[in-house]
Amino acid sequence: MNEKHDSLIPRPVRDSQSEMDEFVLPNDANPLGALLGGRLMHWIDMAGALAAHRHSRNYVVTASIDHMDFHTPVHVGDLVILRSSVNRVFNTSMEVGVKAWVENYLLNESRLVSSAYLTFVAVDAAGRHLKVPPVIPETDVQKRRYEDAGRRREIRKAERERKRRNA
Ligand SMILES: CC(C)(COP(=O)(O)OP(=O)(O)OC[C@H]1O[C@@H](n2cnc3c(N)ncnc32)[C@H](O)[C@@H]1OP(=O)(O)O)[C@@H](O)C(=O)NCCC(=O)NCCS
């Protein structure tokens, strides 16, 4: 098998599931010491890209980030854990889910801060789109996310069409 063929062999979700940890520092926060929403969005983008890179084994660009809510305030000194996994691959794009948790390492507790679905497109060094190998969901949760990602893709497509028509 040549390298190009090898690179399109399906891979399980677990192979690219990723974790990124960040301590909240004063430069990440507003004057009240609370984590800036924009900084968290940046970390979510990075954590999502980690899983997308690992799955596709290529460069990726962020095509979209779905709606985000911020459930819990996070403060300077807190530890934020970001977990990402590839939910589904389409053709050149893939949906990645990211969850951000704030962990109280003194009490051994964690609370969900935010979550998001991101779409990444695999590209080569010249920016040309590349086909992404299929992802294999194994657990019940991964299978549910896979099914749901298909429905979300249809919603995104419809919304893009609507915007295009109204542009
Ligand atoms: C995202 C980007 C690669 C799409 O390229 P395009 O030529 O406009 O889009 P195409 O119609 O060829 O679609 C390519 C793939 O992207 C997907 N896609 C395009 N726009 C999308 C969007 N807004 N949301 C989700 N997926 C999107 C398509 O569904 C398609 O997926 P598929 O191959 O799996 O079916 C291009 O718009 C781009 O480079 N944007 C800038 C990316 C960037 O710089 N991100 C960092 C933030 S600034």
Describe the structure concisely for a colleague.
By secondary structure, the chain is α+β, with helices and mostly antiparallel strands. It has three helices and seven strands. The strands form two sheets. Strands 2-4-5-6-3 form a five-stranded antiparallel β-sheet. A two-stranded parallel sheet has the order 1-7.
Structure description:
This protein has 167 residues and is an alpha+beta fold. It is 31% helix and 33% strand. It contains 3 helices and 7 strands. The strands form 2 sheets. A 5-stranded antiparallel β-sheet has the order 2-4-5-6-3. A hairpin with a 4-residue loop joins β5 (93-104) and β6. The radius of gyration is 17 Å and the shape is globular. The protein starts with a helix and ends with a helix. The model has no long low-confidence stretch (mean pLDDT 95). It binds coenzyme A (COA).
Unreliable residue stretches: none
> Which range best describes the helical content: under 10%, 10-25%, 25-40%, 40-55%, 55-70% or over 70%?
25-40%
Task: Spell out which ligands are present.
Answer: coenzyme A
Order of helices and strands: HEEHEEEEEH
User: Kindly, what is the distance between the CA atoms of the first and last residues, rounded to a whole number of angstroms?
Assistant: 46 Å
Shape: globular
Mean pLDDT: 95
Spatial strand arrangement across the major sheet = 2-4-5-6-3
What portion of the residues fall into strands of 2 or more residues?
A: 25-35%
Helix segment tally: 3
Total strands: the figure is 7
Largest sheet: 5 strands, antiparallel
Structural class: alpha+beta
Q: Any idea what the radius of gyration is?
A: 17 Å
